[in-house]
Amino acid sequence: MVAGGQGGAIVNIGSMWAHQGIAATPHSGYSVHKGGPHSFTKALAIELAPHGIQVNAVAPAVVKTPLCLRFVPADKLDETVASFDSSHPLGRVGSLEDIATAVSFLLSDKSSWMAGAIAAVAVDVAIMAGRN
User: Fold this and answer.
1) Could you say which DSSP state residue 130 is in?
2) CA-to-CA distance for 16 and 131, rounded, in angstroms?
3) Which InterPro entries does the entry mention (predicted)?
């Protein structure tokens, strides 16, 4: 992108777990793992801004993805993921489409004055605002 000289947009995928711990879910390793992309996003946004390149990140809460299959048997996936619905203020976990919509916005011209944003793009059904 820098060599091309035409600007552009980069969107990293972080996690709300990098911002907030929840006692019911052991996640310290995951939180550290996702904290890196958040710091990287901010630093890279500053480094690439002079080249017209925006760098932002989304920080999802619980989303039904193949990652869930690492700790939940496939036949229990829907039931287990749905058990998190009540902890989200909007009453449901996220979908891949929810994340794709946010990423699409950040890659579009409509976000042309955004760079280094993470928490402002917390695609988390308001869980960072508070939990039920």
Assistant:
1) -
2) 12
3) NAD(P)-bd_dom_sf (IPR036291), SDR_fam (IPR002347)
Which residues are CB-neighbours of 52 under 8 A, at least 6 positions away? 6, 7, 8
Are 33 and 73 within 8 A, CB to CB? no
Between 68 and 8, name the one with better pLDDT.
8
Candidates 7, 30, 31, 77; catalytic one:
30
Phi then psi for residue 78, to 5 deg, are -60, -45
* DSSP helix/strand/coil, 57: strand
Instruction: Annotate 27-62 with DSSP letters as a single string.
Output: -HHHHHHHHHHHHHHHHHHHHHGGGTEEEEEE---S
Residue 48: give its domain's CATH number: 3.40.50.720
Give residues with Cβ within 8 angstroms of 20, minimum separation 6. Answer: 127, 128
Tell me what the mean pLDDT of segment 49-77 comes to.
Answer: 90
The token duo for 38 is 């958040």
Domain count, the chain: 1
Q: Per-residue pLDDT tens for 34-55? A: 889 999 999 999 999 999 999 9
